[in-house]
Amino acid sequence: xxxxxxxxxxxxxGLVVREGDCMYKKFVLKNPFQLFLTILLPFLLSxxxxxxxxxxxxxxxxxxxxxxxxxxxxLADLQYTSQNVSALEQTARSVSTTAFFxxxxxxxxxxxxxxxxxxxxxxxxxxxxxxxxxxQSIYIYNGNSVYAVPREKFIYDRTAFDDKGxxxxxxxxxxxxxxxxxxxxxxxxxxxxxxGADKELYVYSYLFFDSQVASGKVxxxxxxxxxxxxxxQSIHPQDDExxxxxxxxxxxxxxxxxxxxxxxxxxLSAKPYISRIHASEEPAGSFRMNxxxxxxxxxxxxxxxxxxxxxxxxxxxxxVKDIERMKRKxxxxxxxxxxxxxxxxxxxxxxxxxxxSLIIQRYNQLEEEKRGEFNDRxxxxxxxxxxxxxxxxxxxxxxxxxxxxxxxxxxxxxLIVLFKVDRFSEFCSAYNAGDRGLLKFGLVNIVTxxxxxxxxxxxxxxxxxxxxxxxxxxxxxxxxxxxALVDVMKQVQHNAKDYLRLGVSVSFSEPFETLAQVNFHYxxxxxxxxxxxxxxxxxxxxxxxxxxxxxxxxxxxxxxxELTEALIQGRLPEAKxxxxxxxxxxxxxxxxxxxxxFIRILLLIRHAIGVLExxxxxxxxxxxxxxxxxxxxxxxxxxxxxxxxxxxxxxALELEAKKDNKYLKxxxxxxxxxxxxxxxxxxxxxxxxxxVDLSPPYLGKLFKKHRLVSVSDFxxxxxxxxxxxxxxTSTDTITEIMEKSGFASRSHFFTQFKKAYGLxxxxxxxxxxxxGYVRKPNLDFTEPF
Length: 785
Description:
The protein is an alpha+beta fold. 57% of the residues lie in helices and 12% in strands. The protein folds into four domains: 68-319, Beta-Lactamase (2-Layer Sandwich); 388-402 and 411-545, Reverse transcriptase/Diguanylate cyclase domain (Alpha-Beta Plaits), CATH 3.30.70; 557-655; 677-771, Homeodomain-like (Arc Repressor Mutant, subunit A), CATH 1.10.10. Strand 9 and strand 10 (309-315) form a beta hairpin. Helix 18 packs antiparallel against helix 19 (591-616). The longest helix has 69 residues, at 32-100.
């Protein structure tokens, strides 16, 4: 069956190929999976689109339905609160009117009462307070006195009454008319009686007055202080999970009820949603807006009394949370549907088109091999032209260029641009041959892309570190004068560094007339590229800018001798200066003069190392041929100078180590002489210097530098150490011990001993015998070396 399918597909592909290459490429050369998906894709996309459109419409409808539902619920809550506020207003109006026509209250408003009747009037006011539980307190004001219940006293004059906030309201009837209500804070009469009671509390003061003076102040008024808690309980409770809140504002935007987001009496007029509510001409409505940083649904309505607005705010995400959950489920279903459809598609495509895939794969492989062979032949053809030493036929080259698709005219002028990879040794160490080929191919692509708009050209890889750009040049202007070309080369260097992490140096040939001269100018450009040694990495080298001297280079014997002597004598800074000066002189000449100077310097260094090895009995790790090969791989004079300096520093370390070893042996000899001649009173710096054949000042300075103590102090410490051991362990007299230790003066011996040990020799001996130990002196260098 598999064979029959493959045969059938082969016949179909053959038929398509015979009918037209264009149709073949459009149909057969597609990936088999893509081919099958193209058949299924319209149906799959239309199904998915239908699901998304349907879910979006349903989501929108459900969201509108949820908003309407929430609006109805919130409006019902607000209307319930509005009814409570209206009931409050009607009750307060009824109470104030009833009280006004009460003879007892009238007496308080318009006459002075005797002290004997205070209880009667106080009881009357208290009865009103008891009948209406929403009343927190009642004030009767007659212009001079205030009658208040409940209070510690019943009668207060205006100056002694603790609720001072009521008087500015009574004195401003322009803004506070009769039957109006004001939210304010008043002193709590229970604060000094009940434990934990607040000092102040919020009340809604209902004002009733019937007369006024010409100044606009109230003379007689009834003030009903309604408890704020009563209104708070009248607001329909909200679901805690929803985060909704209902509050009341007056016509000025001031908050008149408890709200979890703002304290009471807060001015909310600047809030955008409050401004929108006040701007609306409708008595009730809703809208969606950002409220205090949260997306919210706002519902509002006007209260029937007091010109208040009732506002309800519900987080929008709570309203649509069920819809969002349903939407996520729908999207999950669509994703699962797509995934399942794709899996089925891949399964059937593999079962049905595997034979076609094999045939197309073989065809593509043949095409790739064909294209690769064509590119290889093209590159080999260009390399042969570059390296050709004989005469080239311009006519033949024109035909070959046409065959390879090269848009260059062999008879026109040309220019060679040579790119060399900087730090090529590191490049070879970091990448294998395959990776190096890919990076060079990337460099060729960068050059080709950037040079495309500039001029006809062809780019090829030549040596391992070289890329050649053969550029059509009709102007015969020096490359350094062509700013556009130089800018493109700088961009090539920049892109190679950014994208390939390659440093590239660029060398430009002189323009030449025809392609027949290409080999000659290529070789000249290669020679020119060696001047990277002088100009450094990332340089651009132009033949017209090379100003090498034409006279023969002659090395200065004086500088040669200066370098050699400085190395032999260990004067490394002078050796480095002499080396830098020699290279600077050679740089003014040709590249070959600089190369010969390197060899000469190596010969001088080898000679100096030979002298050092002979003079200091040392062996330096330096091999002339190996070092020469190492220098030949270096690409700039800075690298070569750095390597020479490192060699000089290594020589300095080896010389210093050799000198230190010599000094250590000398100091050991001095120590041996001191211990051997300890009893000799003539033992001194001069005596020891004569023994080791050195001058006393030089020996003293050397000993102090390495032992951190003078020779005389060292001799004295060794003698004292020896004397203390004899005092503690022998039966010799102190005088005998003094003589054995080399001290010539008894007083000097006693003085030095007591200074070192804090005791006289006799005391030291007595303590040593009693304690069974010898006290060590607090001195350095007392032990033999």
